[in-house]
Amino acid sequence: MFSVPRETSRFLSTAKLLKLFESTLEGAFSFQSGSVPFFTNIHSSLLPFLLLWFSRLKSVRSIVSINNFTLRQKLFEALSKIEPDSCYNISRSSYEGLTSADHHAINSFARGRGSFLLVSPGVVNSVATAMKNNVEDSVFLSSIKNRSEFIGLLDSWGLDCVRRVDSPGTYAVRGSIVDFFLMGYLMPIRLEFYGEKIESARSFNVGTQKMVEVLELVDVKLVPPVKISKTLDKVMGVKVKSLSVFSLESTGVTNIFDLSPVVQPFCGPFDLACVDHPSFIGNRFVLKQLLGKYSNPLFSCVLFCSDVHNSTVKKDPFFNPFLVSNLPFNISFSSSVLKFFWVSLYSVYEIQERPVSVSIPIKRAKPPSSLSVFPWKGPVVHENLGVGLYMGLSAVSKNNVLRECVALEFKHGDLVHVPLDSLSLITNYVSNEKSVPLSDLRSGRWSKIKKRAIEAAGKTLDRFIEIYGKRDRVDGFAFSPNSFQMDQLVESFPYSETKDQIKCLEDVQKDMESKKPMDRLVCGDVGVGKTEIAIRAAYKAITDGKQVLLFAPTTILATQLFNSFSQRLSPLGVEVLGFSRLTNKNELKKVLSALKLGVVCVVVGTHRLLSQVIRFSKLGLVIIDEEHRFGAKQKEFLRDFCSGADVLSMSATPIPRTLQFSLSGIRDISRIKTPPPGRLPIITSVEEFSFNFIKRAVLYEVGRGGQIFFVNSNISEIPKLKSRLENLLPDIKIGLAHGRLSAKELESVMLKMVGGELDMLISTTIIEAGIDLPRVNTIFINNAHRYGLAQLYQMRGRVGRSAIQAYCYLVLPKSDVGGNAKERLRTIQYNVELGSGFSVAMRDLEMRGSGNLFGVEQSGHLASIGFHLYTKIVQEAAKKRFENKNGGGLSENKEIGVSVVGDALIPSNYIQDQDDRLYFYQLLATSTKTECVVAVEEEMLDRFGPLPKEVLRLLSIKRIRLASVGFCVDFVEVTNNGSTIWFIKNSNLVSSIGRLLGSISTKNIPFSIINGPKGRGGLFLPLNLITESLLTIEYTFESSVSSV
């Protein structure tokens, strides 16, 4: 594919475009030194260039007051595209409405980051006064005298004391550790005190809570937050030097503004004499006239387009007079003073291709580790006891030794304290059942339930082996290597393939050229190029004389895919047929006849195809788009339906069942993580339902030439909602779309949306399934707490499919929502990075389980024992079959028991929060290597300070358990009178002791071999100190392993 470099005599880089603007402006006007210029009749598209010029010329940072919310947002996006991280935007229009995020932005600007702060007139005086007129009151960490003084300082600066620091303006105290996050700082800081003095300082990540960088005390300067005062009274803050304040006012002409300085002295006004040219679509004659007027050496004609259209622009002689910039601005204007004629390709063509943009990096904290902390009073499963409720951690004393346990409540209120040694036996209860079947400890029913589940798992596994083994044994069709015909299709692709796309294409090609029938899942976000993978796979099958079936879950998506496949394949002579409820009877008969007679073609249809009795003689490939939208029965039918054909499935968020298959190696999986160049992360926020907020966001989107989706699940509420929004927004054209509309009505409203006749579409989740409307860049999801993770992610993916910044608003009622709903919304908010669909699907798998893996007959067992335990049972059954097949037993390395006199736990006065303690207990329980234990130790040390002796014992015990694997050890007993390593009865005692004696002899440790009860042998070490004993035993095992 032809590509034009960004740096040629004709193609301008952003830096060269800025230089062009600066030289032209300074050539047109003379500016007085020491004064601020006043400009009039500026086109909105010139504002970012004008502000950047002023900032660079004067080395001045600016506060810009803009009354129009839409213009303020557009200017923020434009500045961010030209110069990332140069601008902060205060979204609220009044002092009372300022949020924590607004305060953080103001303080970031006050700290010296960014060149521009965009505000509304309602807060400009407060912000400017606080920054310019207040006394600086900063301190260095090295000057902090004691811990109490520092905490008092944080209180005086208005920081809130919280349990865990995860947002600016907060601090937390945990023993010798003080965490704090000042407004305007990039990262929070963690101080570790020794007594009252600071011993060390380090920055940390708010998501993982782990250290990022060690800081030198003399280098860390703490500046108090800027305090915004409504009455402009004396407040603390920083003094901001070289600060200018501008006011942007409308002239009354569309897109034309005046930029005036708020303070004296100023020079000017300087009239830029800009004229707006809204659109030339369907009116190229006007563009030709203007081009004839401005196409002379005195004028700079610049065309703005994305770089994917560079080849189009180069081939069209009409655009020869233009210089070309790849900044994707929707601008068209002229200025007789500056001698500019700037045109956007968007105002010339109805462009359907995806443009490219300079991406705006969005820094967000990642959520904590996926290790799931048990929910308070939430259902859990103990492998040997059954389903109970988690009642927190409990301290149990036995023989004057304190142990921390997990308290579980079962039926009849029976309470069991499970030692943390057995934490691996407890998992979250995951099931689709609404009610939780608590187990009765007073009966033996749990063992029977578990036994039946084990038997069913064996049968399920046998069926799995039969189904997929049969598929492996069937010889499919081995397609020929790619020929010159494929090269023609590749050349017609208007974009450059991404690295992941190329890898996926290679995987699919390799699968299709193998005799084994392909069963591959392509997982990738919306818009990353999954359809192109399908098109090339289909063409490969067609060129070898095979038929192709493409299934889509909805009529709308099937129609869109039909158009896409027709557009790419029809010019190459491929017949593409449609099969949906929009297809008339004659066309349906034609499709069925073609399939039966073996006509080589591509059929694009919905699941309606599955209801037909069709005989295929040349079926070679089945493609399933939006695979997660098909039900289990439909997919089981498809599996039998195309047992010998290749199957290619595609989804952004595969359902847990499919993901479980792929992760288990049952199905092949290809991930496309690399987004197209210039795609921007979708800004996602949770908002309470407010018509005023909706009005403002809708007007902003329509004002920049975009469209809006408003999703509401309840069809009966949609007409009332439409009526209310029409009264609120009389100039906005609103349409409806839902499943109760007839096929013609639905097609009509979607065509109006595609054609731009509608500004806003209120719909049900019908828009979830793959609809591609590049102009839709704002979506409201009403009652977002009612949707699943995959649904939320898919619906959000309907926007942000171009270079324009997109917004997703998760709208909630004012009443509180449940914990699971909050977790889903939190996951969606955190996963804004492009290509995060797989992460969302993984979290969905973790939260919901994999569902009905092999059919409806398993659902009862999943409900009774939960997903995690059922999965474990299936894995154990598979392991046994593997051992039987290979004629040998795989040794099972179980951790030994360790009995210690003295407390071995995480004290509550060291880590106060139960969830944090349980988190570390789980980390230890899942650690399989000594290095993992070291990592746990370092994280506790980093977050909570020096480890107490109880924690040191706990870590030492875990290391002993890991190091002793393979030594035929039963358990280790550590007392004040000595320590004993007991061996398993009837084990090779001589060999085990012999391996340990080498390590013991090098340390000159006394020992004796003893006989214990029940014929067990042991190795006795006469060590009196508990700590010394643990370290010695740990060394003995580890050095014996390393010497083998």
Biggest sheet character: 7 strands, mixed
**Backbone CA Rg:** 34 Å
| Percent of sequence in beta strands | 15-25%
What helical percentage do the residues reach? 25-40%
Count of beta strands? 44
How far is the N terminus from the C terminus? 59 Å
With strands numbered from the N-terminus, the spatial order across the biggest sheet is 4-5-3-14-15-2-16
Uncertain ranges: 1-8, 231-240, 351-371, 659-666, 849-857
Q: Shape from CA axes? A: globular
Number of helices, counting only DSSP H or I runs of 4 residues or more: 29
What structural class should be given to the helix and strand makeup?
Answer: alpha/beta
Averaged pLDDT, please? 78
Polypeptide structure, described:
By secondary structure, the protein is an alpha/beta fold. The chain is built from 29 helices and 44 strands. 36% of the residues lie in helices and 22% in strands. The chain has a seven-stranded mixed β-sheet, with helices on both faces. Strands 29-30-28-31-32-27-33 form a seven-stranded parallel β-sheet, sandwiched between helices. A hairpin with a 2-residue loop joins strand 23 and strand 24 (401-409). Helix 27 runs parallel beside helix 29 (1026-1043). The relative contact order is 0.07.
